[in-house]
Design brief:
Elements (H helix, E strand, L loop, with lengths): L1 H23 L8 E12 L1 E2 L9 E2 L3 E2 L6 E7 L5 E7 L9 E7 L1 E10 L6 E4 L6 E4 L11 E10 L6 E8 L2 E7 L9 E6 L4 E3 L4 E3 L15 E6 L7 E2 L3 E4 L6 E7 L2 E8 L5 E7 L15 E6 L5 E4 L2
Length: 312
C-alpha cells in the first residue's frame, strides 16, 4: 500500500515539474509595451534544391529598393490571429525598409511581403491564417507582380534587444524560351502563354489558385503572356526571362506560338527563384527531344550559372 502511495506522489511531483517547465518557457506579459524594430535590407537570392541538385546556393543580397515599391509588415500570434498590419508605400523615403513597433511581452510571428507594383490594385485582405495577397482586377487582368517574402518567429522580452534585420526571398519563378530552328520569313514574334495562380496566402507562405470555376468569370482562364521579337533566318532565338510566375506548386501547360505556328508543352514545373527554360523547335515538326512537342526543359537558378537539366 505504501508503495502505491509513493508512486502517486512521484507522479504528482513529475506533473507539477512539467507544468512549471512549460510555464517558465513562456514570457510573462506584464501589460507594458516594448519597442520592436525591424530593418528589411534586401532579399536573398536563394535556390532551393531540385532533382539532381547539390543543395542550396546563396549569392549576395540585392538592395530592396531596386525591385520593391511597397512592403507589408504583419504581426500574428502563433495561431495565426492577426495582431497588427502596416504597409510602407513610398520607396523613395529613407526609412522605407524600417518598421518601428511596440508589442507586449510574448511570442509572435512576423511576415514581410514586398512587391514591385506601386498602384493600389494589389493588397492583402483578411486578418487571420487565410489572409490573401491578390490583385483586385484579377477577373479581367492577370496578376503579375514580383513578390519577395519572409516569415519569422520572435519573442518580445522586457529586457534585451527586440531588433532584427530581415532578408527577403523571391517567391516567383521565371520562364525563358530558346527556339533552336531558323525563323521563317514573315515571322515577327515568338510568344508564350499559360494559366497561373492569382493569390498568395501571406501567413501560410503559399500560392493558391484564387478562382472558382463555377463563377461567371472563370479567373483561371485568363492567359498570362510573354513575347519576344523574331528575326527571319535566325536560329537559337532566346527570349528574356519572364519573372512573374506564381504557381510553383502544380505543373503548368505552356503554349508557344508565332505567326501561324504553335506548339503546346505540358506538365512544365516551376520553382521559386528559378528560371524554367523551354528549348526546342517551333517551326518544324521534327522533334528535338522526347515528348512535349520536342521541347526540352532546363531549370536554372535565376542568379547563377549552374543549371539542372530534366527531360519530360
Amino acid at each position: 500500500m505504501k508503495s502505491k502511495v509513493l508512486i502517486f506522489i512521484l507522479i504528482g511531483i513529475a506533473a507539477l515539474s512539467c507544468k512549471k517547465d512549460k510555464t517558465s518557457n513562456q514570457p510573462v506579459d506584464d501589460g507594458k509595451l516594448y519597442p520592436v524594430n525591424f530593418t528589411v535590407n534586401g532579399f536573398i537570392q536563394q535556390h532551393e534544391p531540385i532533382t539532381n541538385s547539390s543543395g542550396k546556393k546563396l549569392t549576395a543580397d540585392t538592395p530592396l529598393k531596386a525591385l520593391a515599391q511597397r512592403i507589408y509588415y504583419r504581426v500574428y500570434k502563433p495561431d495565426g490571429t492577426l495582431v497588427k498590419s502596416r504597409r510602407n508605400t513610398n520607396y523613395t523615403l529613407a526609412d522605407f525598409n524600417k518598421f518601428k513597433d511596440s508589442l507586449t511581452v510574448g511570442n509572435y510571428i512576423a511576415v514581410f511581403l514586398a512587391y514591385d507594383k506601386s498602384h493600389g490594385g494589389y493588397s492583402v485582405g483578411g486578418n487571420g491564417p487565410d489572409d490573401l495577397f491578390t490583385f483586385t482586377a484579377r477577373e479581367t487582368t492577370p496578376m503579375e507582380a514580383l513578390i519577395f517574402y519572409k516569415k519569422i518567429s520572435f519573442t518580445v522580452t522586457s529586457s534585451g534587444s527586440n531588433s532584427s534585420t530581415i532578408a527577403l526571398e523571391r517567391v516567383n519563378a521565371g520562364l525563358q524560351l530558346k527556339i533552336t530552328d531558323a525563323v521563317p520569313a514573315g515571322v515577327t514574334y515568338i510568344a508564350a502563354s499559360y494559366q497561373d495562380y492569382n493569390g498568395f496566402q501571406v501567413f501560410n507562405n503559399k500560392p493558391i489558385p484564387n478562382w472558382d470555376p463555377n463563377d461567371e468569370h472563370f479567373w483561371g482562364s485568363i492567359d498570362h503572356g510573354m513575347s519576344t521579337a523574331a528575326t527571319p533566318g535566325q536560329t537559337n532565338t532566346t527570349s528574356a526571362v519572364w519573372p512573374y510566375i506564381l504557381n510553383t506548386v502544380t505543373p503548368i501547360t505552356v503554349t508557344i506560338r508565332a505567326n501561324g505556328f504553335q506548339k503546346t508543352v505540358y506538365n512544365v514545373m516551376f520553382y521559386r527563384n528559378t528560371t524554367t527554360i523551354l528549348t526546342g523547335k517551333l517551326f518544324t515538326n521534327e522533334p528535338s527531344g522526347a515528348g512535349n512537342a520536342g521541347f526540352q526543359t532546363t531549370f536554372k537558378t535565376a542568379f547563377d550559372t549552374d543549371s539542372i537539366i530534366k527531360n519530360f
